[in-house]
Amino acid sequence: MTPILVFLGIPAPVAVASMAGHVAASSTSGVLAYSARRGVDFRMGGVLAAGGAVGALVGVEVFRFLRLAGQADLVVALSYLVFLGTIGSLMLWESVGALIRRQRGEVGPAHTQRRPLLLYGLPFRMRFPQSRLYISVLPPLGLGALAGVLSAVMGVGGGFILVPAMIYLLRMPASVVVGTSLFQIILTTSLTTLLQAGRNQTVDIVLTGLLVIGGVLGGQLGARASSRIRAEELRVVLALLILAIGLAMGATLTLTPGDPYVLLPVGG
Alpha-carbon dihedral of residues 91, 92, 95, 97, nearest 10 degrees? Predict the structure, then answer.
C-alpha cells in the first residue's frame, strides 16, 4: 500500500507514517481470530515486540534524519525495490515450482527440522510453552528490532521478514507463526505511529482512518475470495504483484519526475 500511496501523489514520509497506523489496526482483528484458536504465542510476541520497540525508536530517528536531509523519498524507493524485488522473486520461484510439481504429481521437498546450533546455543534462554521452544531471547529480540526499523522506514509490519524467519530460523510451529507475528506487529506499529506523529509530524489522521476502513472491508472480501483459489495460484498472483510494485518503485529512481522541484516544510 505504501508504494501505491506514493504513486497517487502522497509524499513518501506521510505515506510511510500513515501506513503504520493502518497496519496496526488491520492486524488487531487477525490476532483476535487467531487467539480464539490458540494460535498466538503471547510470550514470544512480547519478546519480538520488545525488540520491535528498540527498532522503532532507532528507525524513527533514522527516518527523521533522512527527511530533514531530503533523502527520505530515495531511501523509501530503494528499500521497496530491494525488499519487494527479492521477496517477490523468491515467492514466484517457489510458487511456480510448486505448480509444476503439482502438475507432474510430484511431492514437494521436505524441510529439515534440524535447529541451528549457533542460535540455540546462545545465552539468556527462555521457555515458550505455546511454541514448544526453549531458546535464547537474543534471536527473537534481533528479529523484532529489524521489524521495528522496517516499520519506521517503510511503513510495513515486517511480517514478510518475520514469518519466514520464525518458521525456518526459530523453528516455531506453523500454527502459531502468523498469529504471533500479527501480535508483534500491533505493538510495534502502534508505537511507530506515535513516534512518527511526535517526532516527524508526518501522520495524516484522515488518510489513516480511510485506510483502516478500507483495510477492514478489503480483508473480509479477501478472506472470502481466498477460499475459492488454490494456494499455489494465489501465491503466484501475490508474487507478481509484489514484484511489479517493487520494480515500479525502482523505476521512479530513473524516470524524470513531472515536477523536478518540490518545496517541503522543514521542521526542527
Answer: -120
pLDDT at 219: 62
Query: CA-CA distance, 27 to 24, in Å (whole number)?
Result: 5
Q: Please tell me the pTM assigned to this model.
A: 0.69
DSSP 173-230: -HHHHHHHHHHHHHHHHHHHHHHIIIII----HHHHHHHHHHHHHHHHHHHHHHTTS-
Cα–Cα distance measured from residue 243 to residue 251, given in angstroms and rounded to the nearest whole number: 12
User: Would you tell me how many other CB atoms lie within 10 Å of the CB of residue 35?
Assistant: 14
Query: What is the grid cell recorded at 225?
Result: 475470495
Q: How far apart are CA 241 and CA 22, in angstroms?
A: 20
State the average pLDDT over residues 223-239: 66
Q: 153 versus 111: which is more confidently predicted?
A: 153
